[in-house]
């Protein structure tokens, strides 16, 4: 209507200027005659007709401009005449042909078509399409390139036959190129996705799988096509993993923001840790349509990070001199965190080298730990005994079927242990220290990564054991006499002071014995220091036999010894001392040229209430030792105690 007004207003103005008879149209109607009114109405109708004609011409021009801009054209395929006719420069707009080109025969038209489209189009002319049918065809442009035409057909019938096909043609080259580029990009995307190490999946908003690449087959046994249409829960994910995935997807749906998290998924006995990234995908209207999930397996890196942190913790325990059992149990826990469902144990070589003793492995049943407290070493003694014998890794993937376990199958079977592999532990100089074993409750074999992990753990165990051995050796050097294995003077005094303090709290009696071998210098001078050392060691063994486990005994230097007897009164201490003296006097040490006998003198004293230091008690016992020496040796003396009856020998 606005266009009509814009056309009418200038036309009416020109008519008014040209014909004064139109003046009454704008003058006072009361002053005009009837004849003048009729004449004015006639001119108005003429002006209106002219205006409508001009408006129609304008619309026609605009329609042509629209056809030109949209690259639309009308073509008529006249079947009886076998000719193609274009309307209003259609062939020029569509195919760049000269403006005077209005029609051509079918043969020329078909020659312009792409060879792949030509047979189909010829068939279409012979069998006209149904009304409003659509088709697409490639036609050679006048400049030489191929132009895509999108055609909408309309049939004209006469006498029961199609006489003419009218084709509304639109140039669709840009769209087809765009579609082809989209297809190429999609193919490239599919190629990248299918060859990606990551699992790439697409889910709808109800979390049903719409697409998933073949990488999933490396981690899950479900066939690729079986994933489609299923939610993670329906695909067999655990309850914990399914709930976490659903929670993260709900967050994405609510916020339209990408999510990043980690999940643990299991395939049989194998655990996989995935870093999952969720991305929103939108449709052309900008609405959330699907969720793209990119899942990267990070098991090795995460386990490596965790293992490194746990190894550092173990090494700190080793450096901090934590108790060995605590350190070994921590190593077992570290390995179990790397091998879910695995139960680890550490067995250490016995002192005689003929058996293994259980040292760590709290995940194993308590009754089973007791059963393997001592395991013989042999060629067919379970996994650990056999591993220690052959000094190599022994893998038993099914205990019930293995001949190595046949000897103890009835004892092991109640614990429902089905697989066990054991790796020997060696010191830095390749001495056998023990074995490290991993148990499972289902038959299975270790992966190469698990075996490598077991070997790695044995190195850490060896470090702990060797450090513990070095600490024990240093402790022995600092606290024990190297010749006899008894406490040295410093350690004896320190332990005696502690016992003295305990005795004050408990108000129990406490006695000490000072002992000195008689004529020991003569034994060294006559028989040599080697024999003298033998005598010293022999006397130390007699002391161990005569004293209780709760008693303290030490070598104070040379041939001088001391013993502390907690909860022992003077009379009882005298009896102990006499038994020891008699055992020494009765002993005979074989030599190359005969036998050797020796004696000992002993002084005994009981702690007094006013004595606060062990040196005070030892000093009084030493005085009694001096008296025993002065009275002829080979005897026991004590203050305020009559000498016990004895038989003098030699």
From TrEMBL:
UniProt enzyme class: transferase
Residues covered by the PAS domain? 185-231
MF annotations from Gene Ontology: diguanylate cyclase activity
Keywords annotated in UniProt: Membrane, Transmembrane, Transmembrane helix
PROSITE patterns the record matches: GGDEF (PS50887), PAS (PS50112)
Alphabetical list of Pfam families matching this protein: GAF (PF01590), GGDEF (PF00990), PAS_3 (PF08447), PAS_4 (PF08448)
What EC number(s) does its UniProt record assign? Answer: 2.7.7.65
Q: Tell me what reaction this enzyme catalyses.
A: 2 GTP = 3',3'-c-di-GMP + 2 diphosphate
- Which Gene3D superfamilies does this chain map to? 3.30.450.40, 3.30.70.270, PAS domain
Residue ranges occupied by any GGDEF domain in the UniProt entry: 508-641
Transmembrane domains' residue ranges: 38-58
Tell me which NCBIfam families the record gives. GGDEF (TIGR00254)
Q: Which PANTHER family match?
A: DIGUANYLATE CYCLASE DGCM-RELATED (PTHR45138:SF9), REGULATORY COMPONENTS OF SENSORY TRANSDUCTION SYSTEM (PTHR45138)
Descriptive protein name: diguanylate cyclase
């Amino acid at each position: 209507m606005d266009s009509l007004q814009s056309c009418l207003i200038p036309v009416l103005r020109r008519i008014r200027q040209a014909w004064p008879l139109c003046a009454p149209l704008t003058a006072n109607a009361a002053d005009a005659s009837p004849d003048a009114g009729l004449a004015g109405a006639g001119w108005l109708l003429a002006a209106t007709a002219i205006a409508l004609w001009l408006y129609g011409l304008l619309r026609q021009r605009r329609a042509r401009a629209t056809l030109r801009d949209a690259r639309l054209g009308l073509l008529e395929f006249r079947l009886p005449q076998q000719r193609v006719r274009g309307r209003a420069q259609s062939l020029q707009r569509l195919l760049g042909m000269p403006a005077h080109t209005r029609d051509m025969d079918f043969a020329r038209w078909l020659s312009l078509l792409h060879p792949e489209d030509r047979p189909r189009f010829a068939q279409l002319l012979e069998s006209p399409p149904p009304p409003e049918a659509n088709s697409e065809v490639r036609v050679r442009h006048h400049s030489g390139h191929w132009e895509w035409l999108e055609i909408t057909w309309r049939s004209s019938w006469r006498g029961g036959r199609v006489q003419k096909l009218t084709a509304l043609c639109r140039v669709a080259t840009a769209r087809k190129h765009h579609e082809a580029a989209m297809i190429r990009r999609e193919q490239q995307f599919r190629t990248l996705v299918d060859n990606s190490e990551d699992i790439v999946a697409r889910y709808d908003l109800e979390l049903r799988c719409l697409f998933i690449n073949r990488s999933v087959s490396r981690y899950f046994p479900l066939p690729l096509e079986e994933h489609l249409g299923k939610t993670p829960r329906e695909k067999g994910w655990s309850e914990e993993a399914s709930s976490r995935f659903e929670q993260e997807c709900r967050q994405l749906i609510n916020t339209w923001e990408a999510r990043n998290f980690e999940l643990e998924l299991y395939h049989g006995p194998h655990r996989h840790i995935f870093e999952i990234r969720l991305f929103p995908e939108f449709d052309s209207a900008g609405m959330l349509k699907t969720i793209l999930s990119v899942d990267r397996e990070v098991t090795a890196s995460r386990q490596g990070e965790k293992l490194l942190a746990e190894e550092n913790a173990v090494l700190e325990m080793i450096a901090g001199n934590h108790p060995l059992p605590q350190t070994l149990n921590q190593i077992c826990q570290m390995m179990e965190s790397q091998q879910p469902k695995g139960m680890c144990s550490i067995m250490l070589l016995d002192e005689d080298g003929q058996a293994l003793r259980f040292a760590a492995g709290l995940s194993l049943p308590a009754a089973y730990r007791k059963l393997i407290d001592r395991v013989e070493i042999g060629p067919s003694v379970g996994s650990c005994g056999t591993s220690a014998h052959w000094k190599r890794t022994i893998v038993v993937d099914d205990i019930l079927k293995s001949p190595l376990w046949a000897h103890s199958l009835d004892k092991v079977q109640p614990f429902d242990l089905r697989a066990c592999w054991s790796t020997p532990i060696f010191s830095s100089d390749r001495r056998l220290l023990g074995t490290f074993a991993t148990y499972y409750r289902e038959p299975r074999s270790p992966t190469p990564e698990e075996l490598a992990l077991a070997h790695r753990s044995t190195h850490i165990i060896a470090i702990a054991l060797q450090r513990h051995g070095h600490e024990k050796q240093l402790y022995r050097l600092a606290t024990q006499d190297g010749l006899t294995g008894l406490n040295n003077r410093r350690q004896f005094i320190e332990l005696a002071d502690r016992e003295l303090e305990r005795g004050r709290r408990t108000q129990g009696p406490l006695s000490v014995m000072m002992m000195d071998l008689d004529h020991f210098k003569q034994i060294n001078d006559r028989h040599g220091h080697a024999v003298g050392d033998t005598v010293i060691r022999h006397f130390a063994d007699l002391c161990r036999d005569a004293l209780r486990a709760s008693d303290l005994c030490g070598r104070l230097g040379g041939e001088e010894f001391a013993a502390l007897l907690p909860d022992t009164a003077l009379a009882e201490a005298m009896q102990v001392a006499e038994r020891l003296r008699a055992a020494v006097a009765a002993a005979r040490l074989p030599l190359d040229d005969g036998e050797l006998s020796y004696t000992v003198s002993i002084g005994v004293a009981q702690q007094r209430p006013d004595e606060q230091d062990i040196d005070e008690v030892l000093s009084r016992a030493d005085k009694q030792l001096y008296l025993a020496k002065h009275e002829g040796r080979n005897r026991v003396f004590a203050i305020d105690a009559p000498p016990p009856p004895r038989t003098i020998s030699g």
